[in-house]
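sorry for the late reply, my laptop died twice this morning and i had to redo everyting from scratch. anyway the thing you sent over, i finally got around to it. pasting the sequence first so we're on the same page, its 383 residues, then the predicted structure underneath. double check i copied it right bc i was rushing
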Amino acid sequence: MGLGMDIKILMGARARAAREAAGLIQSAAAEQLGIARQTLASMEQGRVPFDGVQLVDIANLYSRPVTYFYNLRESDGAAIAFRADNPESVDAALKQRLLDRLAAIADLEVAAGLDVNHGLPPTEPLSKAGHRELNIVRSVAQEERGRLGVGDRAPVSDPVALLESIDVRVIPFELEPGGGNLLSGFSAFSESVGAGVFVNTHPSLSIEHQIFCAMHEYAHLIFHRVVYREPGDGYRTRGKHASPEEKIANTFAGTFLVPAAALRQHAGPLGRISPTDVIRLKRLFRVSFTGMLTRLYQEGYLDKAANGRLWSICKARGWDKQEPEPLIEPPAYGRRTEALARAAWERGEASLAFIGEVLGKDRKVMRDLVSDWEQDAQLDAVH
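ok and here's the structure:
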C-alpha cells in the first residue's frame, strides 16, 4: 500500500482491519455507531469518506487512536524486522504481542503530535569482531555517550530513560527461563515504525542484567539493523566462541556503561583490587559483578593472575549467578509511554480505551489516571 494511495481507501482499509481485530461484524459495529450497515460497508471500501464525528466514534469503538486511520506509512501494517539470540524461546503469540505493542506506541507518538523517528546514528554494519572492528565499536560507544549528552566520565543513572529520550522504545516483558534457555531480550526495527528494545524483566534476572541487556540490544540496532534476521543454528551468545555480533554488542555495552575515562576517575590507583572494590564500582556503574571484572581486566586494572583470582572468588560465592549487593531500583520502564498517553489524551487524538490498551491499564485505573491529569491541567491553568 503506497504513500500515493487514496486516503479514503487507506482509512477504509484500516477501519475494516480495526473492526475485525475488535471482533465485531459489520452490522454490530454499524449499530453501535448509529449508522446503516451499507454506509459502513461503503466507508470500509473507500467509496464514502469519514466525517470528523464518525472518525472519533470509530476510534473509540475500536480502541484505536484517531491517527491510526489516516497516518501514512511506507507500508500498511509496517513489517518489523525481528532479532533474538534465542528465537525459539519467543513463541509466536508473545512475539506478535510485543511487536504489536511497538507499533501501538508508534501510533501513540503520532497521536501525541510527534513524528515517528528511530533516533539511531548512521553507522555501517559490522559482522566481524577482530581487533580493528572492536576498536571501532569502542569509538562508537564513546561517540554515543557524547551524542546523548552523558560525556565520558559520569556513570549512566538510567540507560532506559536515556534510550527513550532519543525515541528508542524500551519495552519490558516477562519470560521465565526454561530448559537451559535464557532470553534476556531482543530488538526490532522498521523504518516506518522505528526501533524497539525488549527487555526480559523476570524476577530471576537482576536489574544489572536488564540494564546491560538494554545497551546490548541498542548495539545491535546500531551495527546490525540493516541486516536484521533471526540468528541461525550456529549462533553462540556466550563464551570464547561467541558469534562476532555478540562480541560487538557486548563490547559496546561494556564500554558505554563503564567508559575508560570514568573508570580511571572512580577506580583510582587501587593496587591489589579486592572483591569489595569490585562491588563498590559495580554498584556505581550499575553493572554486574562479572561485567565489572571484565571492564577492569580490559582496561589493565587486573593482570591475568588477579583476574583469575577474582573470577574464582566470584564463582565460589555464586556471584556469577546471584548478584552481590544487587540494585533494587528498576529502570524507568513506561514513563515515556505514559507521557505520550497524556499528550495524546490532551490533544483528543486517542481514545481512552486505546490508551488503556497501550499502558496495560483497565478502565477503572484509566478513569483515575484521567482524573489526575484533569486536576493537573486545572492547577496549571491557575498558575
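Strands lie at 81-84, 169-173, 185-190, 194-200.
thats about all i looked at so far, will dig more tmrw
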